[in-house]
Amino acid sequence: MNPSDDTNDSSNSAYEWLADLSKRQCFTTSSVAHPATTLDFGDEGFTASLTDGHELVQLTRPDATCGLVYLRGSFPDGPGSILARSQRRDDGISFASDTFGTTILPPQETDEVELGERKAQGWVNFRWPYSQYELYRQDTEETGTCEVISFVSRDTVFQINRLKWGHGSSVSETIDTGERGSRRGRHDREHYSPPAVVRLRVGGKVRFGCPCSNNNPKGPTPESDRFTVRNSGKNTLDCMSEKYGTRLEIGFSDNGVPWNFKSDDGARMVTDQVISGPWADLSSEIRVQIPGGEATYFVSTYALRKDNEDDDKDYSLELPADLQLYLGVHWESEHMTDRLWTALCSTNYEAAEAVEFCVVGRCVEQILSVTSIPVRRPPGDSGLPQRALINNIMTSQIVDVESAFYQIRLLAKIYNFIQTRKLEPDLLDPFLSLEVIRTRYLERIHPIIRACLAWLFATNLKPDRLLLAVHSRSISTDDPDHDRLTACETARILDCSGKRISIDWDQSYNRGCYATMAAWYALKLCPEAISTREDYTFVTEIVLPNLPVAYELGKSRANRDKQPTSKGNVLGWLHFSVILMFYDVLGCEENELPDGVDREDFNRVVIEETQQRFEKYVSRLKTSQAGGWTMEHEELDRVVLLAEEMALNLGFDEFPSLRRSRGLAISRASRTRKIIHDRQRTTKFFPGPRPWMAARGMSNAPWELFCINHESYLRVADYASVTSARDRVMQFLLSDYSLMASWDRADANMVGRWWDIQPVAIVCSTLVDLRLEGKLPSAAPLDPPPGPSTSGQDDLEQSIPTLQAAPTVNFDAAEFLQAQAGGAPDSSATQIAMLRILVQQLKESIKESGKAQAAEIQQIVAASLAGAKSDGMIGLASGRAFEWAYHKPDPIYYPEWWVKAIGDASNVVIDDVNLLDVIDVYQNDKFLFEAKWKRSDTLLAPRPTPTPKVRDTLEPSALGPRMRSSRVVDTRVTGTRSLPVTPVRGPGRETPGLASEKAAEPQILTNDELLKTLNHSLLDIGIKHRIFFVQRFSPTLKSSLCRWHPDAEPAIDAHFGATSRFTESREASIWTTSITVSHWTMRTKAEYDSDPYNEPRRQHGEFPPRNVADFSNDSPSPTSTKIEGSEHIVEEQATSLVFTGDSQGYMWLCSVLSSTVHSRSVAEAICDKKKGVPRLLKKFIHQQGSARGLVFLLLLGHVCERLAGGYEDLLKRLDEIMEIGDRTLLEGLEEWFNTEQSINKLKKMLWGWEALRVFNDKLNSSISQIQRAQEAMEHVIKQDAAQQHVILIQEYTSVMDDFKRRHSMLVDVHEKVQLKIKQVTGLRDGISTITNVIDTQTALADNKTTIQQNNHIRTLTYITIVYLPLGLVCALFSLEEGDVLKGASKELFGGLMVICSLLTYGLAYILDKFMVNADERSWKSSLKVLGGLGGNITIGRSKRGGAGFTKAEAGGPRGSSGVGPRETGGAVIVEMEEMVRRSAESPGKGWLSGVTTAREAELDGAVGVGAPGAGGAVLVRRSSGSAIV
Question: Would the pTM count as exceeding 0.70?
């Protein structure tokens, strides 16, 4: 490699200018605060695109077959995948190094350096990207710097890296002599820095492609190819693509010494090989030492070559001989265009003006260097050079003629603007005049305009010829050109021709109209591009021969049967007007036409008739925005303003036949300007676009989300509001000074449109126009602007509304209110001006018309002051306007969790993927969504009942933090496939709506395929949303799920708890919604034992417990069911629903963790296109946060339904255990009267009552958390409800009704549980009462027997008493011995008989009286105790004797209580009146809570007296006239 001759130093100081390049005149700093796409640069169709970290994303080169061939990394072709790489530095980990180029890898040793923070990044002359980074090392605090610049020269991409470690010279301290090559540095040798090592990757994984193959944006694997890799040791590494016939050459040098790729110094070396597959790995790892204090330079080269085209060219991988002059970094370089753009600014320009010129300058360089692709002509074709203007270098890579028109329009306007500006000399003018730079720049622009027009006309203006490869065609064996094609080219033509046909074109208008309009712009603004005095070839060979073709193609559109659009009619009108003007300007009537052009086919009269027909169509156009603004309105407004713009340059006096068109253009433009100026801010969101709009790729999103809509207002803005309108356009700025086309996330290709050049070209043209009109500052024109030269221009100027002129007195208040409420973007300065006008009119109104109109204007002033916004956009008088600035994309657009691929999840057992189902939701470019259900082709085979030793291996500690097992799936096995069987929930419990629809079937994948899909980047495979269904957990599945759904880890941990909870967290970057519902579930014992993933520490047990089951077996009745052990297991489980994603709901993941909610039942509802998730996402495509909330409620509703079914099964089983229900009605209760049966029945009911209470507690907690979730989601949705269309409100109502219906099922079960608790409680009390009655009856019978026996004893006692004195006297007189009674007479015998009888009877009477008095004393003491509670009791003797007591006379401070007997003498009633009264007056103080009544049975028995406070009873039993308390 030859060092540059820019310096007289050694090679190590040859490129010292790189260190301070960011401080030079040629450098423009990038706006890193804005989002970034790729950094695109190139020359002559050879382009390169870099990431934000300066890695290569793409290389392109022109190609004769397909227009261009590209080289990319191993990532997919989707725009999201490309953007994710471009916004992140490739660290060798995140994307597995799927970009390529020269990259500093992360360090592996302590002496290796790594890239640190970026210190500077920007553009050199808006053309070449430059970056500067810090260098760090782990073992020292010293730092270094790394500068890198990339450019294209001689069809080769160069990357120069300058690395300097430690302290050393600063180029800023060097001395300049003013001469090129005399810039020297002074090294600081006093401080020594130890050397460092840098580890580099050169090359990478690469693949080839073309615009025809760039059609697989959602597939992770590109098309297959065959690569031949050669490492010949000749300082280059080659890779040849067999399919595209294109070769990649890689070169590398260290400090000017070429690197030998076969050297053993590299850590990784690429060998000669042939690779078949989608990509080839050309990664070479190199370790290079950086000396301390000195700079080291690495130069990498990447070139795409074609053997059959480049064999005759002498390509060299050496740097240009005069590199600084080529790059435009030297003061004497004519390529320092940054000086030119700076000179075009006004004197003392502000930062906003500088940014505008940065946008314009960068867009012009993008067109000249990147999007204009030289077209390879067929051999022998010596026509004019041709260039195809593509709209997008990265995604579509095809030509859109509308975009080509706007690019040519911008180049023509820039040419005219630069040519007519007065350039003031700058500080560098002594070295090289600005006039030299201007002349060189203009000489670069107009040949490209001519070449682009030549290509447009070469397409014959047909939509099917608008690809880059306009000269390529299918070749048959009989074609004379067949022999010149290689086998590779023939195969590519056959392969790509079919793909070109599949490209979807918008055929609602004639695209050829834009070609003729572009030619007219070039003729009027850049005539050097059309013809010169010396060269009239372009007119004779290109323009004139194609005018008849343009007429014939446009003529077919004049027929109304074609149903043209409004845009098509206006374009047709402009198309034929331009043909007429070309006809007159080129003198087609007077001069001879070129060969091949028949004058009869190009008749002016016929052209005028067709033009007038389209003119009539345009005059009758009627547009309405009643259904909301759409892109169709923007398209029409833009072409109408183009008609006005072209009218400014037509000079109607030269074309009398177009005078009517002049007036029509003026009137239509005036109306369009007013519509744009009065455009209201969005207040209503509409459902997704209709099918016809979606087919054209048109969105009906809020107009504020599109850059060109803000540009349209900027275009019609007056002097006062132009600044604020400009600022709103700059909200769409990207870091490289291009503009985002839209923020409409409803468009699946939104990111892909960020590379579109068309919106940037439109904005830049408007910025140039505003400077020409004097509304924005710029350099002064060379000559004073000419005054109005025609009456048509006078009329046009008067038609443009402006607030600078004094308004009329007849002010339309209603119109102003409408504009004020409509949100027409306006600045605060404009509002102040309007308020001043209103105040002036207020004064005049007071004088002229009194107070009525004055009051009206006062209201307008107040509304204006209240509605003014700080950003310059007028607010709404009513309703809430759409906050469009809130939706601005973040600098890093895609979150890490959506971009990053997991890679090889080595800790995931391959069988574990059988435990989950996945539903992926995709969005296509037609605003439609599709849900695909994926699952493994096999489930885990049935396993034997695990032993306790196996169970020990599944302890929670082995499963991770709080890890426990989950569920068992009922399966029906058929061969190697088994599908889950939805459990039967009883009649009427099936999911409604599923029976009538075709059930969704899963996409069956192998375990490896499913695992690969789960580990892949969601972005790369085009997934918008993903839903996981997990019904069982393995020890490794939980950790893998946390990797697949990273932000859900806290909710997954909560899933294994025992409580229900709901959480909602919406932060700046992430939005998390999760609910965990803890519940009880039941399954058979066989299922439980056969499940290897049971959770050993979950609460579970037999249902019923064995001791409860034994109640029915100990004393079975004829009608009871004997339970042979427990057949069911009841266990505590949880169902979790977790949503995580970005803060606005555009991207989210969902995990459904439940053993109850089976995937099949819910997957069918989700995938249903008419009622499922795709429909919701399509309807709420512009309010995806609301759609997320509705999807959450949809899934939560199914959870409620499944839980309700599970609890109903539990209640049904519980009824069977407690033996209640219908059988009681049919069979009666006679067996319950057995005391033992009643006791067992009572015990089972007590157990059932406790089980119901446990179920009730769980349900209470679950329903409360579900209610919280419902309220939170309703709050999210209702925030946007005021801005929703009636169709969206109906859809929201429908989803909410469905959720409430399913939720009511769970509420009904809860109410049923509560009713069961009341019923069981009442039945238990009834059984207890019946048992007490039976015991009482038995006791009463025993008492009756005892009383009868006592009566018999009393009779015998009376008889004994009667005969006792008789027996005593007789015994005395019967004594044989004794002198006392010898000879006693009968009188003595009778007298003794009477005396003994009287003594016996008297003794019996005395004893009886003593016993009665003892009884009275005992009752008195007992009743005094009771009387002390409620008052003093005085007991009186009953007149009827000991059978009872009379009512007591009571007194005392506490009131009185009375005890009174019944006639039978058995029952007493205790009335504690004062206690009741005091309890009512002072509740909770220990008094009785109500009237206590003691009731006795028919005979003597138990009397219950309520005790104070405790609510208990005192049992009084009476027997035989005595009472015991």
Answer: yes
